[in-house]
Amino acid sequence: MWHELAPADRHAWLSVALWSREYQRQGKPDAPAGQAFTLNGRHIVDKETFYCTIGEAINGPGGYFGWNLDALDDCLRGGWGATTPFTLHWGSSAEARARLVERVPAGGDRQVALFDLLLEIFEERGVSVSLQ
Question: Which of 20, 24, 51, 92 has its CA 20 to 30 A from that of 79?
Fold first, then answer.
């Protein structure tokens, strides 16, 4: 449902997903380490749709797994649906790479495309990403 929303509405969707996560998860443990998740990059057109997509990949429809880089990093530390290390099969990754080109700070004076920084964060946190 979220992929047809305007960008501001997708951000609101992420806010609702964050606040409703406790109702959705209701004390469920994170998926154990070693799991594989599939992220469908077909609907990723900007950073909000990336966060909607990964939330869905990890926690199902309406799921939450971050809404900015800091929140994604927090989620990768556990308590939000998945335990690292895990594998992320990123379908339609070439399409997502072409769209996630926004330059973002990556430490010091370095700036990189959002897509590349996401891959760096995943690697640092023990997520093996299979680009498909």
Answer: 92
Which residue from 72, 110, 104 is spatially nearest to 88, judged by alpha carbons?
A: 72
Asked if residue 2 belongs to a domain, the reply is: no
pTM of the model: 0.91
Tokens of residue 70, six digits: 């800091």
User: What are the pLDDT digits (tens) for 65-112?
Assistant: 999 999 999 999 998 999 999 999 999 999 999 999 999 999 889 999
The domain that contains 126 carries what CATH number?
A: 3.30.370.10
Strands (E), 1-132: 36-40, 86-91, 103-105, 111-113, 127-131
